[in-house]
TrEMBL record:
This is PhzF family phenazine biosynthesis protein. It comes from Flavobacterium endoglycinae. SUPFAM superfamilies: Diaminopimelate epimerase-like. Belongs to the PhzF family. The lineage of its organism: Bacteria, Pseudomonadati, Bacteroidota, Flavobacteriia, Flavobacteriales. PANTHER family: ANTISENSE-ENHANCING SEQUENCE 1, PHENAZINE BIOSYNTHESIS PROTEIN. InterPro entries: Phenazine_PhzF-like. Coiled coil: none annotated.
Length: 288
């Protein structure tokens, strides 16, 4: 069985930057195990599988896999898959589409070369002491910013938000893999566990997402789902309306730009993230 696929770089203003994504079409006959094997084979941070395409209503159903597990929601796969559907699959590119993922429908639109998604309402979970983070990192107490808590937040995938006091602390960050994995397993509420370190500087955020997969410490180039969590976090604790750019991936040579546009009104979060996608390749995959 041969499946067409695309490769795009997401949250990138040029090729070979941002976060890589493989998008597989016509995947409705694949089993979950086969999708997981293919995601592991290509070994990008995530791969997506389009299992249903409704051209009349501009809708699609997709599944998202990392090399190790299926995701309920992830930002860069939704942005990248939407770009492929709008610009490469539909004959008459629509301005808006909806992608159905396990957490529900996600509204997506394209404007001035950017793909924007609107995230689900966030949930704010446990708050942790900054001392906790020092037990598995090279950070000292002075490396943390003092305005916001360290807290796990989810908009479909959960991340622990960790604010730092300087770009230097972010750049020099080192984690102990085994101690990090142990802390995440003991403290995070879901099987998806990640740390999102950030430094806020005016209208810019510099960030790094680290997690443990397949017994390896992994750093992500651009994490849309973590960005929606961070945007919710800043709307709650920083100010109720924000518009800024999140720079991620600089320390692994995959510079990424994730645009934030959010508002908090009467306890309702309007969380939007946007980014560009760059077409890299297309081909056919021999699934079996």
């Amino acid at each position: 069985m041969s499946l067409p696929f695309y490769i795009v770089d997401v949250f990138a203003d040029r090729k070979y930057a941002g976060n890589q994504l493989a998008v597989f079409l016509d995947a409705q006959n694949l089993s979950s195990e086969e999708m997981q094997q293919m995601a592991r084979e290509i070994n990008f941070a995530e791969s997506t599988f389009i299992t249903k395409l409704d051209r009349e209503n501009n809708k699609a159903e997709i599944r998202i896999f990392t090399p190790s597990q299926e995701m309920q929601f992830a930002g860069h796969p939704i942005i990248g898959t939407s770009w492929v559907i709008i610009n490469k699959i539909f004959d008459n590119p629509p301005a808006e589409i909806k992608l159905e993922v396990p957490i529900g429908p996600i509204a997506v639109h394209q404007s001035q070369g950017l793909i924007w998604l609107k995230a689900a309402q966030p949930k704010f979970w446990d708050i942790f002491s900054k001392q906790d983070i020092t037990t598995f990192s090279n950070l000292t107490v002075s490396d943390f910013e003092n305005q916001f808590p360290v807290q796990e937040v989810t908009t479909g995938s959960a991340f622990v938000m960790v604010g730092l006091s300087s770009k230097r602390a972010l750049e020099n960050l080192v984690l102990d893999k085994d101690k990090t994995d142990d802390w995440l397993k003991k403290n995070c509420k879901t099987n998806h566990r990640g740390l999102y370190f950030y430094y806020l500087e005016g209208s810019k955020i510099f960030s790094r997402m680290l997690c443990v997969e397949h017994n390896q410490l992994v750093e992500d180039a651009a994490t849309g789902s973590a960005s929606t969590c961070l945007q919710a976090f800043l709307l709650k604790y920083h100010k109720p309306e924000i518009e800024l750019t999140n720079y991620q991936g600089d320390y692994i040579n995959r510079p990424s730009e994730i645009y934030f546009k959010g508002k908090l009104t009467n306890d309702q979060f309007d969380i939007q993230i946007g980014g560009k996608a760059q077409f890299v390749a297309k081909g056919d995959w021999e699934a079996y």
